[in-house]
Amino acid sequence: MIREEGFEYFVKDGSPDRLGVTRQGRDVNFAVAVPDRKSCSLLLYRKGSKEVEASIPISAQTRFGDIRAIAIERFPMEKYEYNYRIDGEIVADPYAMSLAGRAAWGETPVGEPHCLCSFERFDWEEDRPLEIPYEKGVLYAAHVRGLTMHSTSRVRHKGTFKGVQEKIPYLRELGINQLKLMPVYEFAEKPLGKRILGFGEYQARAGEKLNCWGYGPGYYFAPKAAYAATDNPVREFKSLVKALHQNGIELILEFYFEERTNPNLIVDCIKYWVREYHIDGVHIVSGKTPLTILATEPMLSRVKIMSEGFPLDEIYAQGYKPAYRNLAEYHQGFEVTARRLLKGDEGQLCGFSEVSRKNPQRNGVINYICDHNGFTLADLVSYDEKHNEANGEDNADGNNYNYSWNCGEEGKSRSRRIGKLRLRQSRNALVMVFLSQGTPLLRGGDELGNSQQGNNNAYCQDNELGWVCWDNGKAGRELLSFTRKLIAFRKNHPIFTPPGELRIMDYLACGYPDLSYHGNRAWYGGFEHYNRHLGMMYAADYVAAQEGQEKGDDYFYVAYNLHWTPHEFALPTLPKNKKWYVALHTGREENDGFYEAGQEEILKEQKTVMVEERSIVVLVGK
């Protein structure tokens, strides 16, 4: 029995059904996993106090397997913090909903954190998951703090969930409908070079670099208090999700689980965030995760799950096609191939033709040319070598294989010629991503020309080097305008977003395959290893066939010339009364290289098109 200001709260056996703290009618239930024969007590603290107000033994008589559970009748949990004492050691609940004393970024307090829980009601206003199909998604990847900390971000609540929420109008105008955030749960910004298994083993000293990304041990159920502008990170994060959904934007969260993390905790964690926070999906960035269990969990059947790969033959019966593709392949295959072709490496055309059309029936595909682990887009076209000296590891950290090209000068350049070439190469990279099948991913800040000065591993750079700069001069504004138009172009032409993979066949007997390859000769791709140019034609009729529409899209011919010399492309003859027009040219400065719909430039020569070096031209046939 617990006494408080004349009140008495009775303790009884609890329910082992859900670990953590839950409400069971009017009672508060505490369930924790404790290895057999170890002593266990629940410790209760008044909010803000370090002193234990009550220590309640949880005897082995309440044990269900390794789970021990007690319930306290009508207990005012909102007034208390809690921990457990197991075999004399004070430990935090791995299922804690929130942590006390973690609001200051970069400070790792000594001692185990106190756990909080709140049963505060939140008005979701009939919020529901958006369930945007992978092929219709436009994914934007960001770090909560890094996205808005820079002085140029123009938000009031820098580095917080509220700061991200302030950027929703920008994301919507850009054309984004999926936001992916790096870990938002409680992790220790631990000093580098020191491994810790839990919080509180070390305290950061002034000047020590911190782990900003959160890939390490964490309290996976608790939103990070240091990312909250208010004293209620739970409510603030829910408000962010709700606001995103109201603007047609899904939220995907990254999770990194250490190798020895209990698989049951992983499954419980993902289900909790889906149930409690209405998130739309997760990106698992660690190995040893029970992907088969997650993929076959009925509660998660319409929740997006992204990972490097899935054992699909274990998950689905042979020939089975899921009603909703919730799994997605997220790996470097597209990135490496596209980067090598962009810089002009030989032998990349076959690989690019494969990854650019990949869109299987059983899973989605995430395509990117830049992610947080590597060069930004601006650095990809400005540096041949990584420059991670600021990380304090003698430039030994980070990937040595970046497949980048500096366009003739390492780092910043005053050359107008080099500046124009870098802008063109950036445009080429974006076209390669956004005109491929699958889901295009844009690294946050790449559309602005954001640079990390050649640092390809800015995990410890909580400063202007690691933050997104929102003002990168004329070149940045031009690239932003181009990106916005490119995203709109993709959305306006469903031939680039079909629900299934294009088959390179004329299965409609309309005289044209859905996708075909061309080069110096029409209908011959020219995939020889020494070539760096390739034409892809998309036939209009197949959009109607795949999506059940009466009217198809226009015909499109995308001429990729990543060679350092101009090339002439042969053009197939269009159906009667149709002509080829230029819709986009990455090498032209006027109107960002785009031609407004209805104002495209007709090709004078309908049999061929000359594409200058390191340029991509998109033709529309109508």
Features:
alpha/beta, Immunoglobulin-like, six-stranded antiparallel β-sheet, 13 helices, 31 strands, 23% strand
Cα gyration radius (Å): 27 Å
| CATH topology (fold) name of the largest domain | TIM Barrel
CATH top level assignment of the largest domain? Alpha Beta
Which strand-content bin applies to the residues?
A: 15-25%
Structural class by secondary-structure content: alpha/beta
Low-confidence blocks of residues: 193-206
Compute the average pLDDT: 93
Q: Please give the number of β-strands.
A: 31
Fraction of residues in helix: 10-25%
* Anisotropy-based shape: elongated
Shape-level CATH architecture of the largest domain? Alpha-Beta Barrel
Kindly report the spatial arrangement of strands forming the biggest sheet.
14-15-18-19-20-21-22-23
Number of domains: 3
What would CATH call the homologous superfamily of the largest domain? Glycosidases
Task: Characterize the largest beta sheet: strand count, sense, and whether it forms a barrel.
Answer: 8 strands, parallel, barrel
Distance between the termini: 80 Å
How many H/I helices? 13
